[in-house]
Structure formats: structure tokens, C-alpha cells
Amino acid sequence: MTTVAYEFDVIAWAQEQAALLRSGRFDLLDIEHIADEIEDVGKSEKRELKSRMAILLTHLLKWQYQPSFRGNSWQRTINVQRKDILSCIRDIPSLKPEFRNPDWWESVWADSLYQATKETGFKYEVFPECCPWSFDQIMDMDFWPSHE
Q1: Which of 64, 106, 111, 112 could form a Cys-Cys staple with 145, CB 3.0–4.6 A?
Q2: DSSP alpha helices (H): ranges in the chain?
Q3: Half-sphere exposure of 36 toward its Cβ, with a 13 Å CA cutoff?
């Protein structure tokens, strides 16, 4: 039995669980919550990847549809997100399959459209229904979509 309740203070609980592990007191571990926390680490990494991709796509949309507002700030955001996405998948290769998951892309695109409509004031209909760029284009440091 642990002395710190998981529901009361998760940080104190985690520190206690780590100390129990290090001391070999496996009989006192809160196995169920440890398993939940381990699964949540993966979920957190997936959320970060999705968030970064949505930010990147939002800014690519803004870049394409608002050429008069293009500036260093947008360019910097696009480049930082590209680099950080590459860093995420380099550090955690098991995230790569997300890029082949149509449901993941649909969700990312929906987030991007929502944010782009909020930030530009444009209606959803202005933007493509699904992402018009390939993954390689999105991640290409030399790719800057133009408004046609």
C-alpha cells in the first residue's frame, strides 16, 4: 500500500513510486496507476506531434491565403514546427506510423482548419476540404505554398 494517493497528488505519488522501484519494494507498487501513466506518456507524445502538425498546417494555409501578411514571424513558426516535428519522430520513431493514418490526418486537418478560420476570419469553404500537400511538401524547408 502506498502512502500517497494517486488521485490526491500525482507528482508526490510518482516520486514515491520511483523510490519504491529503486529500493526494490515491488510489493508496494501501485501497478494499475503505473501502467496508466506509462500509457499516458505515449498519448502525450502523440498529442504533441498532432499539435505541432496542426500549427504547421495552419501557418501554411495562412501563408498561402494571406500573402500580404507574410512575414518573418510566420516563416519562423513554419520552420520551427518543421524542425520540431522531425525532432519528435527522430527521438520517438514509433510516432512515424501516425503519418500513414488517415484518421490522424483528418483530425489534424480539422484542427488546422478551425485555427485558420479563427486567425484569418475566412469561412471554412475558402480552404480545401482536405490537405492539399503531401507529407514531403509539408516538411520541405523550401516549400512555401502560393495562392493560385
Answers
A1: 64
A2: 10-22, 31-65, 72-91, 102-120, 135-139
A3: 8
* Model pLDDT for residues 73-116, shown as the tens digit of each residue: 999 999 999 999 999 999 999 999 999 999 999 999 999 999 99
Find the radius of gyration of the CA atoms of the chain: 21
Contact between residue 44 and residue 98 where contact means Cβ atoms under 8 Å apart: no
DSSP assignment letter at 129: S
Residue 102: inside a domain, yes or no?
yes
* Grid cell of 107 as nine digits: 483530425
Please state the pTM of the whole predicted model.
0.84
Please report whether residue 69 resides in a domain.
Answer: yes
In a domain, 135, yes or no: yes
Side chain identity, residue 41:
V
The cell for 31 is: 501497478
Residue 29 DSSP symbol: -
Instruction: Write the CATH number for 110.
Output: 1.20.1220
